[in-house]
Amino acid sequence: MKPEVIFNLNRCKGCGLCVSVCPRKILKLDTSVTNIKGYHPSVISDQSQCIACGSCARVCPDSVITVLKHEEDT
Ligand code: SF4
Ligand code: SF4
User: Which residues line ligand 2 (CB under 6 A)?
Assistant: First the structure.
């Protein structure tokens, strides 16, 4: 399985909820980027460490995150 985490970065309000729930600690707010809302959006630092638990997508109040699981890659 090769998970893929996709961000709709312009919807992100930089609340950091996803960052705090990720069990692998691979999400962070990218302070080098400012989205159209004026926030620093969440990004994934190491896709290969993601276990596709879906916690980040569930906790996000603005449906920014989509977690895909590529079952064919298992
Ligand atoms: S799916 Fe789980 S492990 Fe992957 S980035 Fe989201 S919270 Fe972290
Ligand atoms: S929970 Fe959603 S809105 Fe909040 S920082 Fe993460 S992606 Fe952005």
Answer: 12-18, 42, 59-60, 62, 64-65
- The distance of Cα 39 from the centroid of its chain, to the nearest Å, equals 15
Q: What is the spatial distance between Cα 60 and Cα 6, in angstroms, rounded to a whole number?
A: 13
Domain ranges of the chain: 2-73
How many C-beta neighbours within 10 Å does residue 14 have? 17
Atom of ligand 1 nearest to the CA of 51: 3
- What's the average model confidence in pLDDT over 3-17? 97
Q: How far is the CA of 30 from the centre of ligand 1 (A)?
A: 16
Residues 36, 50: Cα–Cα separation, whole Å: 27
Fold of 2-73: Alpha-Beta Plaits (3.30.70)
Q: State the pTM of this model.
A: 0.92
